[in-house]
Amino acid sequence: MLRRFFFLLVSVPFFLASPSPVQSQILDKEKMLQRETFWDNRDWNWYSNQIPFFDCPDREITTTYYYRWDLLTKHLTYGSPHSGYSFTEFIDRPFWSGAYGAISCPAGFQLYESRWLRSPRIATDYLKYWFRTPGAQPRNYSTWLADSAVAVDQVHPNREALIDLLPDLIANFEGWEKRHFVPEVGLFWQTGHDDGMELNINSRQTQDILRGAPSYRPSFNSYMWADAKAIAQIATLAGKAEIAAQYTAKAEALRSRMLERMWDPKRQFFFPVLKNDEQRDGFTQKALSRTYESGQFAGDSHGRELIGYVPWQFGVLKGKTSFDAAWLKLMDRDGFYADFGPSTVERNDPMFLLQKSCCWWSGQSWPYATTQTLKGLANYLQSGGDQIAAADYVDLLGIYARSHRKDGKPYLAEALHPDTGSFEGHDGYNHSEHYFHSGYCDLVITGLVGLVPRGDATLEIRPLAPDDWEYFALDEVPYRGHLISVVWDREGNKYGHGKGLHVLVDGKRAGHSSTLRALILPNAVPGQGIEADSPKQSSVPTNFAVNNDGTYFPRTATSYTASGTSTSKLNDGNYWYLRHPPNRWTCEGSASQEDWIEIDFGVEREINSVQLYVLDDRADANPSPIRAPALVRLEAMVENDWENIEASASLPRPEGHRPYVLSFPPKKVRKLRTWLVHDGSWRSGLTEIEAWGDAILPIATVPPPAGNLAFNDGSKEFPRATSSHHDRFGGVPKSAIDGITNFLPSPTNRWTSYESKTESDWLEIDFGKPTEFRRVELGIYDDRGGVQPPTSIAFQAWNGTEWKAIPEVVLSPSKPTGSQWNTARFPATAASKLRILFTHSGAARSGVTEVMVWND
Questions:
Q1: Tens-place pLDDT, residues 164-208
Q2: 641-645 vs 720-723, strand pairing mode
Q3: Residue 811's beta-bridge partner residues?
Q4: What is the full DSSP assignment across 651-698?
Q5: Ramachandran class of 186: left when φ > 0, alpha when ψ lies in -120 to 50, beta otherwise
Q6: Domain 720-854 has CATH 2.60.40.60
Q7: What is the rounded distance in angstroms from the CA atom of residue 486 to the CA atom of residue 495?
Q8: I need a labelling partner for 531 at 20 to 30 A (CA). Which of 358, 418, 462, 782 fits?
Q9: CATH homologous superfamily for 541-695?
Q10: What is the mean pLDDT of residues 616-628?
């Protein structure tokens, strides 16, 4: 029987599945956390209540394990109350990302990682995000969403939620089929670029080295095979036998064609198969030929790429098969093996090329491909493969762990040099830092320790860790409604459970072996799946402060904003504490001893806690004046007056790099003000503020206030926006008056004068009739590159015959500031048109995400 448990963590308001009332931890969590020194996010409560804890003799493997959970929190995004949680890939949200910065390419890895969190909400929200959130882009890049849905369900069983996704997963598969399946070949084609592997050895032999060489690739076809198998499995659970049979047949046919077309018996490896004839430099690669079977390097004995191991990642191949010889190249220095590898292409390939620029997949070491390879290797070894050994898995995992370093500290960027470990050329500022395009913790849990997820009550443990290790422990892993601990204590003096391998379920011994070997424990994890109520039926913890959709409400205002920081970062659903790259609002330079942040929800919201993610730069190499505030107090607007909110705090006083939570009985609040009392001469700052309460979803969108004279959602002729110049990338004038504000690059919702040849440009609003106004609000766009805040802004009114300067303009802030609202006030002015003139800053050009005009 399914049981329902709901717990509210102090640090993060997730639904927390309580796997068991019996909890007996093996590892001292505080000790494990405090022995690491890299922490940016020091939310010890979150780690203690969410992640499985791990220990082993290899400190590099262990440190990277904990670093990867810190990394995950930097990308964890609360997109909106409707969407819930998702993940970014890059630390920024580049223009090619979807809603809230998610990109489908690494989604499978992100789901495989996040399924091991105690709260299932993060992973289940993210699964739904891909199909239920406007602006999500599930098919912009190859990925394995149906397979991931089953993978999440294996850890946190929720049959109702899984079956609910079935129509979406089928539609997604059919979308791929319609665009990428070639019936006469029986395979799916994909470009390397859209497979997440841009400049590769096949595309470089075509006219388009970035997007060329559409091929039937082992990677993408393995993903589609895995998705077909998963859909069949979910359909069976749903009692839809016909769909199950249909997708089982699809998977079987796809597997057959993959093995037939992609395997080269001469080179003993899987290769992409070209879709079309491709020509470059007088050479022709022929359609349906494998890498180097035609073209300039026809007959060459190389051409192997790590994607040849992806069939094992998903179980297209298991155990001993006639294809096992492929694994011999992995540990060969003339193949893929390297000190910071594996390299994505074998070493002696004629197209092997290392570059100091993105995005070359011709030899660089990419964590994405390393994760795939290690996952495939674990599956191969755990199902009986023996061409290479478990020791090789541990060796490669150790290399991968050490690859997470920069200047001796835990770090990860996009790709690295396979011989030196340098990220040079693949480490863009405010983009590639702490890159979430791969997995690691899942490799430790399922591979090294060997907890093999499955869909029944049998607990399967197949460790790949070496038996000459004195110890290792994986503690309190949430699994099927239970907490699992796996302990190896060679001499019996480390963990207090005696010698050998011990498996505990909810603190009680479920299995033991005197040697380090596989343990299969029937009925050790009986059905105790946690089924969270549907949001349509019950309330869920909801952050009412977040605003990523650009609507007028909720709306933030502050008493002061430091240059280079932004109020828009206060409620963007992301938090991290680094100075570089920044995601912060601060009061640096404020003359006041206390400053405030105000959130106007637009309507009354019933909230019960406010969570502040507090900055403190004292530990930086070059500290800034930002420190945790001495005191925080809350106020609510009641009948046009501010009243104190009495609240209990999660800490004696605010501390940097962790949330400070103020809790109180549920209270209906329209406007919330948070006061930060600075610590002496220091000044305060936040990376995020959240206002939590319980709500039945979906909640209604609050309409903007009446009176914005510039607003036009496209349904009427006037007001109308025009400009002296607009960019060619979607930054058009009408986007500046559509009521949507977005200070981030994606999605594009702005006007800019990028690439204008003049030193100033104007944006004009035609009201269509004489109109009185006295206040203009400008959401100034700043990408810190080609578009930056102007040096000055002026305003003109059309008197019917000519443009006249509007006098006595008072700007706040006095200097145009990007990524936030700037307000201009002046005496009441009547005109049919308003022109705003921007004087550009050097070579950069100006832009706004929104302009609002008021007469108040």
A1: 999 999 999 999 999 999 999 999 999 999 999 999 999 999 999
A2: unpaired
A3: 824
A4: SSS--TTEEEEEEEEEEEEEEEEEEEE--TT-B-EEEEEEEEEEEPSS
A5: left
A6: no
A7: 11
A8: 462
A9: Galactose-binding domain-like (2.60.120.260)
A10: 96
